[in-house]
Design a protein that fits this description.
This protein is an alpha+beta fold. It has helices at 17-31, 38-44, 52-57, 118-132, 147-152, and strands at residues 7-11, 60-65, 68-76, 102-109, 137-143, 156-163, 170-178. It has a 7-stranded mixed beta sheet. The radius of gyration is 15 Å and the shape is globular. The N and C termini lie far apart (45 Å).
Length: 180
């Protein structure tokens, strides 16, 4: 029998950035391919990716299995709903927990580690942190691949729309969850 896993959830640090970017690319390429055309997968890179503000803010988590990054994701108290440093339409404005929704951001699981509770671990930590910061509602820009998972976690689809940051439109969903 193999060694038991050494799963560790911790806040991301700047030194994690190369591993995070590699995991995101692997996840986009593999996990989106059953839901998007090859052109849409390619175009999704224009919208998806790492927002290093999340690391600076201390709201982004990494899950490690020994020395392998197997998942990442987090939440935000800033107005940007989705995307990486390169995505158009970013806003660093702080959200008001009394009237606005915290954001669930940049959730990725390594394709070789899906269906092992990695995303649920990250999502639960993010939800708890947002709740502790005073937010009673969460929202995210979810992919079609992520929709079934988020629905199982209590999120509902508020709207379906097309991201047009890339060369072809990519379908996304706004999903929300209420703590009350």
């Amino acid at each position: 029998m193999g060694q038991p896993s050494e799963i560790v959830l911790r806040l991301a640090v700047e030194a994690d950035i190369p591993a995070i970017k590699a995991l995101m690319q692997a996840s986009i390429e593999t996990l989106q391919s059953d839901y998007l055309t090859p052109q849409q997968v390619q175009a999704s890179r224009a919208a998806m990716g790492l927002d290093t503000q999340l690391i600076t803010d201390g709201t982004y988590f990494c899950v490690w299995d020994a020395d392998t990054l197997v998942g990442c994701g987090g939440w935000s108290f800033r107005a940007t709903l989705y995307g990486g440093n390169h995505t158009k339409g970013r806003s660093a404005r702080h959200l008001d927990p009394a009237t606005e929704r915290a954001r669930i951001r940049a959730m990725y699981t390594h394709p070789d580690h899906t269906r092992r509770g990695i995303a649920k671990l990250i999502l639960s930590a993010s939800e708890q942190a947002a709740f502790n910061a005073g937010y009673l509602t969460l929202e995210m820009a979810a992919t079609l691949a992520g929709e079934p998972f988020y629905a199982r976690c209590g999120y509902r689809v508020e709207s379906r729309w097309l991201d047009e940051n890339g060369s072809v439109p990519v379908p996304l969903l706004t999903m929300v969850k209420f703590f009350t």
